[in-house]
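Q: Given only this backbone (279 positions), what sequence would you predict?
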């Protein structure tokens, strides 16, 4: 079966289960330890990934692996509670299967969240960081191989991946709520190993403010399909190469869960106003 046919089968199954996905529905992808965002969804309808034809299933314990449909602050949402990583063995296309499905379902706006390590020493641990740009250091891309012209052009421009109006809205809502919102460049590496002190120095020199193992693949695929994107990282630890400390997964998850209240509050506020700039 061809790649696009698999995407269409997945989308058709979801469409059937959810009856109808409203115009203006915003998609969310929750990162490590940030699954609590889905608790804000009202009248939720859940579909386990394992039941969706051709849909990948995450092997990461902190990712629930379910699609949840409902509303937040009156805005219809479709939340992916758990994502897929290259380090799990997925190809770039497999890791972005869910993004292609969202595009087939007619989603026009996507909010990506993740847990990331801060490379910028001035950034506060536990604070959210608005992604203004990214660096893909994985050595691959979901656009590799034959291009599907119905999704997007062969050589998509990448000068504005993260929507300017959505970023402005996030800044305004953070100020209104009194939430410290860092702004910077996110870098995706392959993983699953954490970075060494020497790598940390290199990544910082290259212009990255935060680093993680997801998001860039998803952003590339979504941008290719014309989906508007907002990206927010939860800074779970600070990488200082001259005094590096271990950052085990349990610590990352714990910090993300601790900081999820502010993230949830911010995203709820964004969703309350998002229709004004996405209609």
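A: Predicted residues:
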């Amino acid at each position: 079966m061809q790649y696009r046919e698999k995407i269409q089968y997945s989308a058709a199954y979801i469409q059937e289960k959810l009856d109808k996905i409203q115009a203006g529905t915003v998609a969310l992808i929750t990162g490590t330890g940030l699954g609590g965002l889905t608790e804000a969804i009202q009248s939720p309808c859940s579909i386990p990934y394992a039941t969706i034809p051709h849909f990948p299933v995450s092997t990461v314990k902190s990712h629930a692996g379910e699609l949840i449909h409902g509303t937040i602050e009156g805005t219809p949402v479709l939340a992916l509670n758990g994502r897929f990583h290259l380090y799990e063995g997925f190809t770039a296309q497999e890791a972005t299967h869910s993004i292609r499905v969202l595009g087939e379902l007619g989603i026009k706006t996507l909010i990506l969240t993740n847990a990331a390590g801060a490379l910028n020493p001035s950034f506060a641990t536990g604070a959210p960081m608005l992604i203004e740009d990214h660096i893909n250091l994985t050595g691959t891309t979901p656009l590799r191989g034959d291009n599907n012209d119905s999704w997007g052009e062969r050589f998509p421009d990448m000068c504005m991946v993260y929507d300017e109006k959505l970023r402005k809205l996030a800044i305004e809502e953070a100020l209104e709520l009194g939430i410290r919102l860092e702004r910077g460049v996110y870098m995706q590496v392959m993983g699953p190993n954490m970075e060494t002190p020497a790598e940390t120095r290199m990544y910082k020199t290259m212009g990255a403010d935060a680093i993680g193992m997801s998001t860039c693949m998803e952003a590339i695929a979504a941008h290719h399909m014309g989906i508007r994107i907002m990206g927010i990282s939860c800074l779970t630890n600070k990488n200082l190469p001259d005094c590096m400390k271990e950052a085990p997964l349990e610590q990352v998850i714990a910090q993300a869960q601790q900081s999820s209240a502010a993230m949830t509050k911010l995203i709820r506020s964004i969703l309350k106003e998002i229709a004004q700039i996405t209609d």
